[in-house]
């Protein structure tokens, strides 16, 4: 079991680097926009460029993960991440920056599903929620807890240095993974829930009620993540007039909250399951409730003056919905046969992260069409919060893994 947790620790670091790479553009938004003379719509396009090939690569590599070891896939991804980041340590061009983000997005698209697939090879279904929450917490650390460090590098050495630093850290992780990473034992039918041990037609699996519900809630949760990564720093500095150093700590707050919430809610989910509560409730309803709370909190941004309550709402809105990635992933793992799990997770992640393609540019356009950027941000966050909350409710109605597993058995 110790070997399994070594892999979990390395995958956690993998996700820290993954989300730090995503977040660096948002953290460096002010100097990038000033140096390259970008409008907010252009910067929104830059944020969305990261997701141009994100979903396509997620599907493609998800199917490959059914056949190729996750150890191999992950070290290759790590090398490509570094190769995409390092040129930006010396180049100052909007076209090159967009190209770098497209390449990085293509290489990072499969990261979360492949990482989870690697971890699932070491744990049975009933024990997966906690290690999945650890992996998801890596995203929180990368997106926020390292923010003060990245902003310090930007302030002290410039935004180019931040890209170079993250590229070098990525290469260091590749070395660790090659030495310490290992493939988990192959899952056998006994490791999957009854009814999910044999192959299911992909059309039936991917269009099941539970899968669609996970897509909807995950899309909503990722909408918030994308806004957090691309626009939160700019919102705090430009609209709320915070100093960059102060903004860095506010950006770190959602990540700190997620690190506490993800394992706590994962533990609660496992306890509910142990008490005989259905997976629809213990995973589906619990996860979608978190998404709805995140959306409602974001929709309240325009109505609360700057202060402790506003900062608390930012923390809640940008953290609690991300819990769904722990529980939604376990739902997909629950209904998917082991031999099809990599592809199912890859497809799910690719659909969910389409929000990353839409959210940054939508916010940029809303802000730009308002004469006052502060008013634009208020409208953008109100609309985003309402959308997220509505999608969370719809997902709660759809998710029903017990129903889907019964349907899969009847179809054989």
List the helices and strands and how they pair.
Blueprint: H1 2-27, H2 29-36, H3 40-49, H4 54-64, H5 70-85, H6 94-108, H7 111-120, H8 129-145, H9 147-157, H10 159-180, H11 202-206, H12 209-239, H13 244-274, H14 279-299, H15 308-317, H16 324-335, H17 338-352, H18 354-368, H19 373-398, H20 401-411
Helix pairs in contact: 1-7, 1-8, 1-10, 1-12, 3-18, 4-6, 4-17, 5-6, 5-7, 5-10, 7-8, 7-17, 8-13, 8-16, 9-10, 9-13, 12-13, 12-14, 12-16, 12-17, 12-18, 12-19, 13-14, 13-15, 14-15, 14-16, 14-19, 18-19
Secondary structure: number of strands? 0
Over the alpha carbons, how many angstroms does the gyration radius reach? 20 Å
* CATH topology-level fold name: Growth Hormone, Chain: A
Let me know the average pLDDT: 85
In percent terms, what proportion of residues is strand? under 5%
The main sheet comes to: none
**Helix/strand structural class:** mainly alpha
Query: Quick one: CATH superfamily?
Result: MFS general substrate transporter like domains
Tags for this model:
20 helices; 412 residues; Growth Hormone, Chain: A; mainly alpha; globular
Structural description of this entry:
This protein has 412 residues and is mostly helical. 78% of the residues lie in helices and 0% in strands. The protein has one domain: Growth Hormone, Chain: A. The protein has helices spanning 2-27, 29-36, 40-49, 54-64, 70-85, 94-108, 111-120, 129-145, 147-157, 159-180, 202-206, 209-239, 244-274, 279-299, 308-317, 324-335, 338-352, 354-368, 373-398, 401-411. Helix 14 (279-299) runs antiparallel to helix 19. The longest helix is centred in the middle third of the chain and has 31 residues, at 209-239. Residues 187-196 have low confidence and may be disordered.
């Amino acid at each position: 079991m110790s070997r399994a947790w070594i892999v979990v620790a390395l995958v956690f670091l993998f996700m820290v680097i993954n989300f730090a790479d995503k977040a660096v553009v948002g953290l460096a938004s002010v100097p990038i926009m000033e140096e390259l003379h970008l409008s907010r719509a252009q910067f929104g396009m830059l944020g969305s460029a990261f997701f141009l090939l994100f979903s396509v690569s997620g599907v493609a590599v998800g199917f490959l993960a059914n056949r190729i070891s996750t150890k191999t896939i992950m070290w290759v991804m790590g090398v490509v991440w570094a190769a995409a980041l390092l040129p930006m340590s010396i180049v100052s061009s909007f076209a090159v920056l967009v190209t770098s983000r497209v390449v990085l997005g293509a290489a990072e698209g499969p990261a979360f599903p492949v990482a989870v697939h690697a971890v699932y090879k070491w744990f049975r279904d009933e024990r997966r929620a906690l290690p999945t929450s650890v992996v998801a917490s890596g995203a929180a650390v990368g997106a926020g807890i390292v923010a003060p460090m990245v902003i310090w590098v930007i302030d002290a050495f410039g935004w180019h240095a931040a890209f170079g630093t993250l590229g070098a850290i990525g290469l260091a992780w590749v070395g660790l993974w090659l030495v310490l990473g290992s493939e988990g034992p192959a899952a056998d039918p006994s490791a999957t829930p009854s009814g999910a041990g044999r192959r299911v037609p992909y059309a039936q699996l991917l269009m099941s009620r539970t899968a669609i519900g996970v897509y909807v809630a995950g899309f909503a949760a990722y909408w918030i993540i994308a806004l957090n990564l691309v626009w939160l720093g700019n919102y705090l500095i430009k609209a709320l007039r915070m100093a960059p150093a102060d903004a860095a700590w506010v950006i770190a707050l959602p990540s700190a909250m997620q690190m506490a919430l993800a394992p706590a809610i994962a533990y609660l989910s496992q306890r509910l399951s142990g008490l005989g509560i259905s997976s629809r409730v213990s995973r589906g309803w619990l996860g979608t409730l978190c998404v709805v709370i995140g959306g409602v909190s974001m929709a309240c941004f325009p109505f609360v003056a700057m202060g402790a309550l506003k900062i608390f709402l930012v923390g809640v809105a940008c953290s609690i919905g991300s819990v769904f990635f722990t529980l939604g992933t376990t739902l997909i793992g629950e209904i998917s046969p082991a031999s099809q799990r990599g592809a199912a997770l890859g497809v799910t992640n690719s659909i969910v992260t389409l929000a990353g393609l839409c959210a940054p540019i939508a916010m940029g356009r809303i802000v730009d069409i308002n004469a006052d950027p502060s008013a634009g941000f208020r409208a953008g966050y109100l609309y985003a919060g309402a959308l997220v909350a509505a999608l969370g409710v719809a997902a709660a109605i759809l998710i029903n893994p017990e129903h889907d597993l019964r349907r899969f058995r009847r179809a054989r």
